[in-house]
Amino acid sequence: MDKLGIVFALLGAALSALLAGSGSAVGVGMAGEAAAGVITEDPSKFGKVLILQLLPGTQGIYGLLIAFITLSQIGIIGGSSDISLVKGLLYFGACLPMAIVGYTSALHQARVSVASIATVAKKPEQFGKAMIFPAMVETYAILALLVSILSIVGVGSLNI
Amino acid sequence: MAVLQMQHISICALKKDRKKILELLQRMEMIEICDVMKEDILFQKMDLSNSKTIFEKNVSIANNALEILGSYVKEDKSMLSSFSGRTVTPPAAYDSFRSKYEEILKIAKKISACAKQIAEAKAEIIKLQEQLEMLKPWLNLDIPIGFKGTKSTVVHIGTLPNEWSEEQLYMELASCMPVHLEVISKSKEQTCAFVLCMKEVSEQVIENLRRIGFAKPSYSSKIAPAAYQEELSDMILKMQQEMEDAKQLIIKMSEQRDNIKFLADYDFMRAEKYEVIGHLLQTRNVFVLTGYIAERDKSAVEEALNSSFDVAVSYSDVSEDEDVPIKLQNNAFSKPIESVIEAYSAPGKGEADPTVPVSLFYYMFYGLMFSDAGYGALMSVACAIILKKNKNMEKGAKNMIQMFFYCGLATIFWGVIFGSYFGDAVDVIAKTFFNSNFTIPALWFYPSSEPMRMLTFSMLLGLIHLFTGMGLKGLQFVRQKDYKGLVYDVISWYLLLIGCILALLSMQMFADILGLSFVLPAICSMIGAVLAIVGGSLIILTNGRESINPFKRILKGLYALYGVTGYLSDVLSYSRLLALGLATGVIGSVINKMGSMAGGSIAGVVLFIPVFIGGHLLNIAINALGAYVHTNRLQYVEFFGKFYEGGGRMFSPFNVNTKYYKFKEKINNG
């Protein structure tokens, strides 16, 4: 039973990379389809629509980040992997915000990105504003990232 | 630092100088044409849309020709050539082009004609090939397909569905003998047959044949199929030759590419000029041009005009309620940020230019989010090289590159402060390959090991940013001499927020959360509470001041006070400085770790180098973009939300808006 701690901790790390990553994959895919459509009409907008396409991709990176911090904290990448069940569960919980918020925010950010790509297709000079809308959604992914990072670092220094 | 003061300019000159003056103004790019005066009996506008249309048509002919040339003869373009901008050309080249004009236009038209010829020949060849295909089953027939018969015989040539042998056909026609028939060719789908019969039985023969599905071929000719095939092949060869000739001609004419580009620009400029002429008020000998000009540029324009023409120039101030265009002027450090402001909106009526404060925070936040000395150095060096190599870059691209140059410098600064050089590359390389514990320590602290401290720092910067925004709003009130607004909308909020912060800082719990080493004494909590209450009641009493009903007023004031939650979320929003900064650093460390997995052997080095280069380039691409987007967001949403409205219109001068060449009046210092 004591050995289960590491299992839960790894499960958390895997979930954050998995959920946030798949959200971003779907999101970047959606935005990419829209961007490719714009390029058929006007190839000169490539740079702008590429940026908009990449915006929903950050959640996957945040997920990776959390997974990596967890892995190195629990000693799967280097170090010893002797952690208690409670600690393992704490790590698991700490990973959840990034996993879940990362997934949903990537999907919704992708929809805003698609809409912004449509804006840029019609009015390329409004790129600055069009870029801000998807960035608004990302705020929540960043907040989740923050909570996850702080929790993981905090759990690491607990003595239970 | 400022929005330039605009004035009306009116230039009155002789009509004979009209084109020369307009060309000069077009190249100086300092005047925005607008209609100020009304038409009257003496001064009238001319309708020149006809000639404008001709020029526009020529531009499209030239562009079409260029496109065709591009598809036959590739222009050698390097990756970075998009930065190099338009070729600078002295005005003399513009004047001397007139002599070549007709010839070049003819060449452009010729190129289009050749392309059309090629397309037509291609279509024709496809048609001929189809005919050849149809001819194939008939090749064994030695008389023309259109052959009808002789004096007393009739010939039926045609196809039958499915496969038929001669015997089967003789059986079908047994009742109308004598008949001679031949099967020319047969396949599973169809049989081509030749039937010769006496004139008397022709009707009967054809009836019998029809019953089994006989049909005349879909084409007819006067020569035998074999000869016809030869003729068709010859025609195809001829068409191919024609195509090849046209192609060679186009390739030969591609030498004129630069001239055709010039033509496109030349007529584009002329079209714009005629557009302006259409706005001019003219009499028989005199014309008047009116527009906006920045006060700064007045003397330059006047001098240029007076030196070569007889003109009368006069100025008048713009009126209060006019839609005056906005032109910004800033020093070299802040100028690149003008495009960030422009992407949001030009300053509205009576608003100050926010470029300088935005630029300070912009570079700082970008640096904090990217926060790696190695990445910053790479970015700055790349931008510096691009700037150095392409002196003649377009304004927009140049601003962008300059902006990233400064952002790169800020990134180096924060990277050194937080001890990040390509992530933890220094430590990893030292440990893996040299087995030492060498490290470059952070000048301040490592955010990854003390994230709470970094979070506090981020929020502190956020508070400074927000307070600066409010301060700028206060400045705006002072400029408009609206001191009531200053007290009610700015100072009241300052009191409330500072009061709240003081109260929070004197709580032990809050200090513990943020990991602060100090707690303010209890007296500060008292002062804070008093300040907050004063500020809060000021807000409740005054922020609904546009309502007369006192009850409604207080309600509106209470609602405004609720806006304090907005400040809370604004401050929290700056936590992205920490999150994105950590993201850059941690991903960098992941890359270094992956690269060093094979240890310090030769194989380890071989693995390390490609992983290091590829991984860090990827990290730069992702995080440079993230930092850019989120820096913009912090400016647009949090900062501008406090004071900036925008809604102005950017100055768009009568200029040379060409695609390929840039004509500048003053080459030496331009």
Cα end-to-end separation of chain B = 22 Å
How many β-strand stretches of chain B? 12
CATH superfamily of chain A: lithium bound rotor ring of v- atpase
The share of residues in helices of chain A is over 70%
The poorly predicted ranges of chain A are: none
**First CA to last CA of chain A: what distance?**
16 Å
**Fraction of residues in β-strands of chain A:** under 5%
Number of DSSP helices of chain B? 22
Please tell me how large the radius of gyration of chain A is: 19 Å
Largest sheet data of chain B: 5 strands, antiparallel
CATH topological fold name of chain A: Four Helix Bundle (Hemerythrin (Met), subunit A)
Mean pLDDT of chain B: 84
Which regions of chain B contain 5 or more consecutive residues with pLDDT less than 50? Answer: 666-670
Please give a structural write-up.
The complex is a heterodimer of chains A (160) and B (670). Chain A has 160 residues and is mainly alpha-helical. Chain A has one domain: Four Helix Bundle (Hemerythrin (Met), subunit A) (Up-down Bundle). Chain A contains five helices and no strands. Chain A is elongated, with a radius of gyration of 19 Å. Chain B is an alpha+beta fold and 670 residues long. Among the domains of chain B are: 73 residues, Alpha-Beta Plaits; 92 residues, no CATH class. Chain B is built from 22 helices and twelve strands. In chain B, helix 11 packs parallel to helix 21. The C terminus of chain B is likely disordered. Chains A and B meet through helix 3 and helix 5 of A and helix 10, helix 15, helix 21 and helix 22 of B.
